[in-house]
Amino acid sequence: MRVVIAEDNALLREGLVLLLTSAGHEVAAVAASGPEVLPALLEHRPDAAVLDVRMPPGFRDEGLRAALAARREIPGLPVLVLSQYVEEAYAAELLGGGASGVGYLLKDRVGRVDEFLDALERVAAGGTALDPEVVTELMTRRRDDPLDTLTPREREVLHLMAEGRDNTTIARLLVVSDRAVSKHIGNVFAKLGLPAGDSGHRRVLAVLAYLNGG
């Protein structure tokens, strides 16, 4: 996998380079400031981008803006965004363009090497990888939501879908059968009014409805 890294913290940036190369991936380019990000992505067109949200010169949302711009220029570009804190507005904006091939992790998740690499691979494959704390934060801030029609178990299943978990993993985490998970997901699709069709596409639509409040 060819990856572009955008991170202003030199220690973390070099750590990401070492981590990815040790795992057998190629780091096509690194960027240390906001203005460097988009040109690097357009030049190298990587299999995935790992981007910090806040970068020089303004330390506001330069990395996120570059990610959004790159996805407009390269539709479907897999982007894994790193953030120091749960920033709801940034997560919602990233996901608002479509939840396919996007991830949002807190930086301390990078230290959990297997989880980080698994998240990156899910994003590169077109899935989602959302930090559990991000999902929880977005969920707890929703009120009077159409998603309130879901049962607690259905919300648990959708929560795990938003993290990018597949049916087998969901079944293992909830200690239920694969068949039960499939039934809950079917109920979620029905309650959210998602049309019959490709189940992968409906999973993306369900995650978007969940994170964007329907």
Automatic annotation (TrEMBL):
Gene3D superfamilies per record: 3.40.50.2300
Pfam families per record: GerE (PF00196), Response_reg (PF00072)
Residues covered by the Response regulatory domain: 2-122
GO molecular function: DNA binding
Domain annotation HTH luxR-type: ranges: 143-213
4-aspartylphosphate, modified sites: 52
PANTHER family the UniProt entry points to: TRANSCRIPTIONAL REGULATORY PROTEIN NARL-RELATED (PTHR43214:SF24), TWO-COMPONENT RESPONSE REGULATOR (PTHR43214)
Protein name: DNA-binding response regulator
